[in-house]
Amino acid sequence: MFNYLPEQASEFAYKVDRVNQFITNTSVFFIVLICGAMLYFAFRYRKRPGETDETPRIEGNNYLEVVWTAVPAIISIYVMYIGIVTFREMRTVEPDALEVNVTAQKWKWDFEYQNGKKTTAEATIPVDKPVKFILASRDVIHSFFVPAMRVKMDAVPGMYTYVTFKPIKTGTYNIFCTEYCGTGHSAMLAKLRVVSEAEFERWLNDNSEELLKAQMSPAERGENLYNKSGCVACHSLDGSRRVGPSFLKLFGKKEALADGSEVTADENYIKESILNPNAKVVKGFPPNQMPAFEGQLTDDDISALIAFIKAQDGTRKAEEKKESKPQAEEKKVDLASLSPAERGKLLFQEMGCNACHSLDGSRLVGPSFKGLFGRNGKLTDGSSYTADEKYIKHSILEPTSQVVEGYPPAMPTFKGRLNDSQINDLIEFIKTLK
Amino acid sequence: MNSQTGELAGPPHVHHMDARTAYGAAKLGMWLFLGTEVLLFGGLFAAFAVYRWKYLGEFTHASKHLDWRLGGLNTAVLLVSSFFAAVAVDAAQHNDNKKVVRNLAITIGCGLLFLVIKYIEYSGKYHHGLFPGTAEWNSPEFNESYKCFFGLYFAMTGLHALHVIVGMIVLGWVLSLARKNRFSRKYYTPVEVGALYWHLVDIIWIYLFPLLYLVA
Amino acid sequence: MAESATGEKLNYLNHERGLWSWLTTIDHKRIGLMYLFAMTIFFFVAGILALCMRLELFHPGPDIMTAETYNVFFTLHGTIMIFLFIVPGIPATMGNFLIPLMIGAKDVAFPRLNLLSYYLYLIGAVLALVALVKPVGPEFFSNFLTWLGLTGPVDTGWTFYAPYSLESGTAVVWMTFAAFILGFSSILTGLNFIVTIHKLRAPGMTWFRLPVFIWASYATAIIQTLATPVVGISLLLIILERVMGIGIFNPKLGGDPVLFEHFFWFYSHPVVYIMVLPAFGIVGEIIPVFSRKPLFGYKMVCYASLAIAFVGFFIWAHHMFVAGISDKSAIYFSIATFGVAIPTAIKVFNWVSTMYKGSIRLETPMLYAMSFVFIFLIAGTTGVYLATLATDVFYHDTYFVVAHFHYTIQGGAVIGLIAALHFWYPKITGKMYNDKVARSAWFLVFVGFNLTFLPQFVLGMQGMPRRYFDYLPMFEPMHQLSTIGAFINGAGYSLALLNLFYCAFFGKERAPSNPFESHSLEWQTQSPPIHENFEETPVVTDWPYSYGVPVEGGGHH
Question: What is the ipTM for the molecules in this complex?
């Protein structure tokens, strides 16, 4: 009765519709009952000509009041309960869910798959396999709505949200933007193609890996390296000062060096600084901080990084930042299925610890993590330490307050950037490095 | 016009209720209004709480740019002003209009002093580029969390300063009535209601001060 | 009895004459009428905008306007209807007129503050109108307008969501400032009413002898005073962000756009009850009079008003289930929202039970009141879909929501106001309206309203998102039905209000002081009332619903 909902194309769609139908049936029952009573009274007790209007003075009935407080209350609790149960199911992400990054922008939907494949205005997913769309926005709030799948979620600038479901029917479905976003709001449509798994694999790998890489601009490859090689830990993109100078508007800038001379940050200077960081340190920044990347990066990589640094001219700031974030999120998403130590390893790379702490016992800016846990030694202030959980946590949060003898007080604080459970993950990871 | 029911007399324009009711109504009305003011600032306090939690370390650091001595001095100034406002109410209840004028003048003077100190603080921020609209503020290198902290700082203290000004105008009006010997044991509603408002302005500052200046 | 120069009985309408006497009046009755006059104009302006949108939506694709124009239209329709019409709405018109009369007072507690509220309302309205200005004319002039921030009519939707409202190139600052001023007006009105109801009740008028309209107005006034400051501060912050570049809601400046939604709905959910609670009160007054029966379960109805006002403060984020709040808070807000369903249900049951064994006269106000019950049942039950998490995910921001809140606000508050205007018409004007015309108008309103918005429920179920200038062809049939309904609805309102205005100025039929034989206090004085309401302060000895003959087991009061 009164059901105009679109077809049920996701696994939980029928459950949503069942809740919906229960509300409809109950509502219709009560509307008919109450309006029926009202119309019946209006007819049965109408004032007829010539009749007096004397009525019994009935002021209330406590028994009835209790009944019509309790009955709606009980029905409400039941509806609320089935609504919550279904909702929780709708929000639960299967561990093997296919992840697709969705970026909303006035007025288009961009999709990016984990192998780097990108599409716009059309997403393709395999049938009978759970999928998770991770939503982000480049400008204002949008909302990702797939009626046939019964899912909807806002894409909010500055944060990540998601929808998840398991499609059960192949076909093409509408995607709408349901949060008003300006002129093109009603044109911000996209298609969701659900295909067989074999077809999906074919589609996904349509472009070979090399082809994809070739499609990437040098700056994009450089951005990948920036994140993966740990540059991110010490060089910001937004102009804020970390351990090293920010990359924002760095290229072409005249820098005063510690020895009083001046240098222009051109290709050669940057290349030299990557391979041999201590040769020319910018005034105001501490020397001996940056590890040399000689042998770690190829010439090709360095060119890509230079292209990336050139791109940080301030005009593309917001865009670059937004683009770099979904990748971090992609990794975070795996986290639930990983062991703490495995998560710690990911953090070790993501947060850029690897820039200063080696895993093989070699000395970089900071002490190597190999065999660190349980180690005893002396601090710069002469006191001794044991590298237990408490010490490591303290070192992550307030690094400069307890520096191991022979090392510079160079590490940035991770207070506010790592939460407690992430720190524990890191500690678990360090413990495994016997 | 001036009905003499009970021991209270009404203000000259009130003709639709007796003086006791008018006094009660004015007080209830002012208390309700103070409630709305608290909620107005409540929104800002809530926003501050949210961002303080979001930018834990940065807020502490940003707060160090505020001079707690100037903030503390302003707290003292407002506390003193509130005391004199209370004395003015007492004077009105004792038929001493001259004393009302004197004390309200001190209260308003304290309000003025508060604004001067606030101005010194603001211009200091302006010179350090911590003021919205300066070149430093608009440069991309200005930290987001700082923008948030100082945005809230100026919104909260600015709105409060506006309340100080409104409070001074209200008390100025009460003072002008006192100069005309309007108040007595039987009728002192404007003095009391005006002082109530002034106390609220004071109390809001007492919350703002530790929140903004002393988090570091 | 005093008489005017022309030999008429003196009343609040003729004891002073001339425009100036109206503009400077501190009489609550005249202020109520001045609100009514201004609000009627805004109601029609926003209504015409709605009809234009319905015309545009008759076919998919652009027909009579561009997407930009459409976006401006729905923003103005929402902003004008909400801030200039229905939020001041029943409290400012009927509340102003009736509260002192119903409690036996000469005026509200602060008559001059009341007039100030009215002028703040007008200033807000003027600011909102100024915000429509586009930078035109010679270059220096258009540059000047741009400098003033008058960069064209607002296109943000009445919700002003950040960061859209922070980046929109339109006169958002002016419009939000207008809404801020209007909010201030609303606060002062609410404050005035609370003090009035507390302090100015006539001797013998105890709390449980108050008409339910007073209870409803009291609950409404509490919401007005407590919720409005919060939206005030969030609109102020929007202005500061735009003017000074501080970062509270803009993610690019370190802010959080979801926080704005929290602030906004902390006010704008309770504001729904500012709109409908007084309408509940009106229905609670009308049904007993035309059934000749006491209001069934009077105390429960009074408590229910307070309960709705109270619970209404804790459920705001049910507008944000898919806005990026945590699943846990979504669950909490869903549970809390169901808490408001129960007092609402109680009211409906009590209204209908009042008619049992009555002596029912289907006069025009009663027809409106009964339509209200029907419409509000649909509004309430469709609210359940939106409070339930699993289904709200689907319905959020679709036409289902559009239909739901129009059932609540237009079907509830506007029809409640029209019912009130008919019911108290003899008291306000001293005349009778033309009954035949009033009944035809009621029929048009009822049919047109349901024809407009029932199809929109279907559209929502089919997945049609709201605020869409253009749509897929599958949605066309229901859009066409809705457009036809909208024009019938508009004709109905025009006819009803024309009838009321015409009869007020040119009607011949004089109304007796109590044509519907109500027991409530406002009917015990002459129609229209004298300037100070009552010849002498009334002494109340009974509640206003003592209809019928006492019976065994009929409950007690």
Answer: 0.92
